[in-house]
Amino acid sequence: MPLESDIRDVLECLDQKAATHPKIATFWKHYISRKITMLEKSLNDCEHVMESLGESQCDVEPEALAAAYLFAVTLRGNGSSTEV
């Protein structure tokens, strides 16, 4: 998968730069790790939702999705969090 290869390449580059730029390398490695964790959670959440739909033929209106998103954000931190 190209994304996995890109991530591996960037992390290898960060490992090489860690000797001369340890703070920058550490920051980016932590940031990328956090983003990967968030992406994995999002993919799992999506899979769970798709499985829960079953054979339903009903779709959701965009406004309802927006409302559900805002509600989830509010529950997780009064709207201050961008992680859903």
How would you explain this protein's 3D organization?
There is one protein chain. Helix 1 runs antiparallel to helix 2. The protein is an all-alpha fold and 84 residues long. The longest helix is centred in the middle third of the chain and has 32 residues, at 22-53. It is elongated, with a radius of gyration of 18 Å. The chain has helices at residues 2-17, 22-53, 62-77. The protein has one domain (2-77).
Largest sheet: none
Rg of Cα set: 18 Å
- Could you tell me how far the N terminus lies from the C terminus, measured between alpha carbons in angstroms? 25 Å
Write down the domain tally. Answer: 1
- SS class: mainly alpha
Question: Any low-confidence stretches, pLDDT <50, length ≥5?
Answer: none
Which band does the percent of strand residues land in?
A: under 5%
Instruction: Provide mean pLDDT, rounded.
Output: 88
What is the share of helical residues?
over 70%
Form type: elongated
Number of helices: 3
In total, the number of strands is: 0
Q: What is the H/E order?
A: HHH
